[in-house]
Design a protein that fits this description.
Blueprint: H1 2-15, E1 27-34, E2 37-45, E3 56-63, H2 65-69, E4 73-78, E5 81-86, E6 89-94, E7 110-114, E8 125-132, E9 144-150, H3 155-185, H4 188-212, H5 219-242, H6 248-265, H7 271-292, H8 300-315, H9 317-357, E10 364-369, E11 372-377, E12 381-387, E13 390-395, E14 400-403, H10 407-413, E15 418-422, E16 425-428, E17 432-438, E18 441-446, E19 450-454, H11 459-466
Antiparallel strand pairs: 1-2, 1-3, 3-8, 4-7, 4-9, 5-6, 5-8, 10-11, 12-13, 12-16, 13-14, 15-16, 17-18, 18-19
Helix pairs in contact: 1-7, 1-8, 3-4, 3-9, 4-5, 4-9, 5-7, 6-7, 7-9, 8-9
């Protein structure tokens, strides 16, 4: 039930309309630049968004005096070159608008034109903007994100810059932390977490880029494509990570469902919807994997946080796209990093304590998993396999124990009867019953365990070790 409500909220969030560029009653006109300023004619009320893509347009609006008195600059943000006038006074040019790609000089994506003092009379004044966009590349659903009078670099923007820079630093530090952990553990989960942190750090870097670098507007499309691809990379890695512990049928259904839904989301015309839709699909699949997997249910705090995020997406998709989705990603990764660091430290301490307590006869092995220590007889070990963050110790009596050691260390500590038969398996040759070939693959047949895959590079060594003890072929069976 909760998952259904969450999906409904997500759909509502994705269908909410982005903030439009117009903040005044704009009119679109035909015009030209006369000796005393813009000369406009055939003006009509604006319907829809201001869209200068592939053309030159003149737009004008009456701005009340109160708006001008409270602002310091006219901010224009979008994929267009521009020239602006206030009450017939020329404010400045961003590039050079033109009626073709040859005559236009591309300007910056965002520019602020300082307003002259006492710019407005008692009843306000007219803003006139000339726009053209012939170098933007693919067509955007929202080419202009803002044309409005604002305080120069207002407090909200400064706060947004500070938050984005902080998130970039946090995610970059998380990438380093997960990379160190992967260097120590060499597991699939640590590699996935490192990739998630790295892609989100690059995502944060692209998000903060417009505040730090005044780039030409044609680059904006590539920035949007980069944001989308990095979000898709993070989402794919998140889905893979969250479905690792599920049974194959459930895992495959979730992954195929995520892939199909993400492909549908990619058809949205707005890049904001592409980015947030892709991230939303990954979050829903992650929650579904949590609910279906062998873990405890989500706490009330987590549900409240996710619900708040989706409500913010419904209320203001633009704010969510600019800032809050990075907070959501960081709030997922940082606790994971803390958990992984704690786990590494705890496992190392437990391992040291276990080996110290079991300093014991050489025919015993202390199998540690978390705080649990089990002493097993070395001759009773049949196979030791890699199992992501752990290794699995298979015993002669059929028991399978998880151990927080590493295959490399165990290979050096175990007696000569144990041999590395594959990069992910060590076998006790005392329990081997023979070798079996299936096409181009070799299997080592083990008592009470079934076949174990053998690397081709180790076949000769294993056959030589088995020759004294094995004199006959073994019946073939499938790998378990």
């Amino acid at each position: 039930m909760r998952l259904s409500i969450l999906i409904v909220l997500l759909v509502l969030g994705l269908l909410s309309a982005p903030a439009v560029a117009q903040t005044y009653d704009w009119k679109v006109c035909e015009g030209r630049l006369g000796p005393s300023g813009p000369e406009l004619y055939n003006c009509q009320s604006m319907k829809g968004r201001i869209d200068p893509q592939g053309r030159e347009i003149w737009v004008t609006a009456r701005v009340p005096a109160s708006s001008i008195d409270q602002g310091d600059a006219l901010r224009i943000a979008g994929t267009a070159s521009s020239e602006a006038w206030l009450g017939g006074v020329f404010l400045g040019a961003n590039g050079r608008p033109g009626d073709s790609a040859r005559s236009e000089i591309p300007g910056r994506y965002e520019v602020e034109y300082r307003l002259p003092r006492q710019a407005a009379g008692r009843e306000g004044t007219e803003i006139t903007v000339r726009l053209s966009s012939f170098h933007g590349g693919a067509r955007l659903a929202q080419p202009m994100s803002a044309i409005k009078i604002v305080p120069a670099r207002d407090a909200l923007m400064r706060s947004q810059i500070a938050v984005n820079l902080s998130l970039f630093g946090i995610l970059l530090a998380s990438t380093f932390g997960f990379g160190v952990i992967h260097r120590l553990r060499r597991t699939r989960s640590s590699l996935l977490l490192t990739g998630m942190a790295a892609s989100s750090a690059m995502l944060a870097a692209l998000e903060v880029l417009p505040f730090l670098v005044h780039y030409a507007y044609p680059f904006h499309l590539w920035r949007l494509v980069g944001l989308w691809l990095l979000t898709a990379t993070f989402s794919v890695l998140l889905v893979i990570y969250c479905t690792l512990g599920l049974r194959p049928p459930i895992r495959h259904r979730l992954m195929w469902g995520a892939a199909i839904t993400a492909a549908l989301v990619a058809g949205f015309t707005s890049f904001d919807l592409k980015i947030l839709g892709t991230l939303g699909v990954a979050m829903v699949v992650a929650i579904a994997a949590w609910a279906l997997g062998p873990r405890r249910q989500l706490s009330a705090g987590v549900w409240l946080y996710l619900g708040s995020a989706l409500i913010l997406a419904v209320v203001s998709l633009a704010f969510f796209a600019e800032l809050f989705h990075l907070l959501l990603i960081a709030s997922l990764l940082v606790p994971m990093l803390m958990l992984q660091v704690t786990r590494v430290a705890r496992d190392d301490l437990s391992r040291e304590q276990a080996f110290a307590r079991a300093a014991s006869p050489p025919d015993r092995l202390a199998v540690t998993a978390g705080r649990r220590v089990t002493i097993v007889a070395v001759p009773d070990i049949v196979v030791i396999r890699g199992a992501d963050d752990y290794v699995e110790v298979v015993l002669l009596d059929g028991r399978r124990l998880l151990h927080s050691g590493r295959l490399d260390h165990l290979e050096a500590e175990l007696p000569s009867t144990f041999m590395r038969v594959h990069r992910s398996a060590i076998a006790n040759l005392q329990h081997a019953e023979g070798l079996n070939r299936e096409g181009g693959n070799w299997r080592l047949m083990m008592r009470e365990c079934g076949p174990v895959r053998v690397s081709r590079s180790r076949i000769a060594e294993i056959r030589s070790a088995l020759l004294p003890a094995t004199q006959s072929a073994v019946v073939s069976c499938e790998d378990g």
